[in-house]
Amino acid sequence: MQTKTATRTSFSRLSSWLRCPRLHRYRYIDLATEERVSGSMLLGIAFHEAAELHFRGIQRGEQFVSAEVYAAFDRALTDSAKYNEEVGCPVDYGKASLDELIGKGHEMLAVFLAESPRDIEVLDIERSFEIEIEPGRVVEGVLDLVLRQGNRVLVVDLKTSAQAFGQDRLDFDSQATTYIVAARQLYRCAVDFEFWLVTRTKSPRFIRYPVVRDAADEAELIEAIREVEAATALGVFPRRRDWQCMGCEYRDRCNGERGKEA
Ligand code: SF4
Question: What is the pLDDT of residues 1-38, one digit of tens each?
């Protein structure tokens, strides 16, 4: 049973703060309208929708129909592109057009459908969770895919990315830690975790990354949640300048506010 006065956060809020506290403020505190959205982000969301359809088919034991998976991807990507244009949030396609993005998505789906395992026992898809990570601290999130593997479960988080993951991400990504703790509470058994990545590279690749976490990682996660809570309460949202600023959905506002809060 959860503590009645628990503080509450979601993994998305935590990860946005860890990516850039200023971006977190715009998105979750100020509820600012996004200035733009990246085409690669829309591709990732559409890819998830298509993969979800694929996994639901496996779960129901249905005959594999790839045409439906491709169609779901096309629909999700074109609908979201249209929606964003209509609400005045332009899509930043970078060097690609929408058609080229769809083409890249098809290449990625082809690799994913050919190489991702199908002899799997699907336990849950898009399973939401709400766990008390320590007394008085609730964390919410959604597990993409949960597989039964004997008396253990394997939590899979599906990713798309411009490149393969580096070792630092595999060692420190707080999503894996959060989801392992959550799945252990949900399923009451030993939990394994993998990222399943499909790259947006010239020749897309499907890569499985098993990730292991220990008690020290879990303690670090709780410390991070406490520190984000404390910084938020104090209104501390420093900019984190790095390569991600180029694609940031709030970069005009962020740049325009420089020097105005000192
Ligand atoms: S432009 Fe960079 S520093 Fe500013 S909010 Fe975006 S990611 Fe953060």
Answer: 555 667 999 999 999 999 999 999 999 999 999 999 99
CA of 159 from ligand 1 middle (Å) equals 22
Kindly report the backbone phi and psi dihedral angles of residue 61, in degrees, each rounded to the nearest multiple of 5, phi listed first.
70, 25
Give me 21's structure tokens.
């506290």
With residues binned 3-state (H G I as helix, E B as strand, rest as coil), the percentages for the chain, rounded to 5, are: 50, 25, 25
Please indicate, yes or no, whether residues 125 and 115 belong to a single structural domain of this protein.
Answer: no
Report the alpha-carbon distance of residue 69 to residue 141 in Å, rounded: 25
Classify residue 79: in a domain, yes or no: yes
Task: Count the helices and strands in the chain (H runs, E runs).
Answer: 9, 8
Testing ligand 1's pocket by substitution, the residue of 254, 255, 258, 261 carrying the most ligand atoms inside 8 A of its CB is: 254
Using pLDDT thresholds of 50, 70 and 90, give the confidence band for residue 136.
very high
Instruction: Indicate whether 103 and 216 sit together in one domain.
Output: no
Residue 146 in contact with ligand 1 by CB distance below 6 A: no
Is the CB of 245 inside a 6 Å radius of any atom of ligand 1?
Answer: yes
Structural domain of 51? 33-119
Same domain? For 156 and 103 the reply is no
Question: Is any ligand 1 atom within 6 A of the Cβ of residue 98?
Answer: no
Q: How remote is the CA of residue 35 from the centroid of ligand 1, in Å? A: 12
Q: Are residues 190 and 127 in the same domain?
A: yes
pLDDT, position 166: 96
Residue nearest to atom 3 of ligand 1 (CA): 239
Shared domain check, 173 and 79? no
Q: What is the CATH number of the domain that holds 185?
A: 3.90.320.10
* Ligand 1 close to Cβ of residue 248 (< 6 A): yes
**What percent of the chain is predicted at pLDDT more than 90?**
91
Q: Is residue 257 part of a domain?
A: no
0.70 exceeded by pTM: yes
Mean pLDDT of the chain: 94
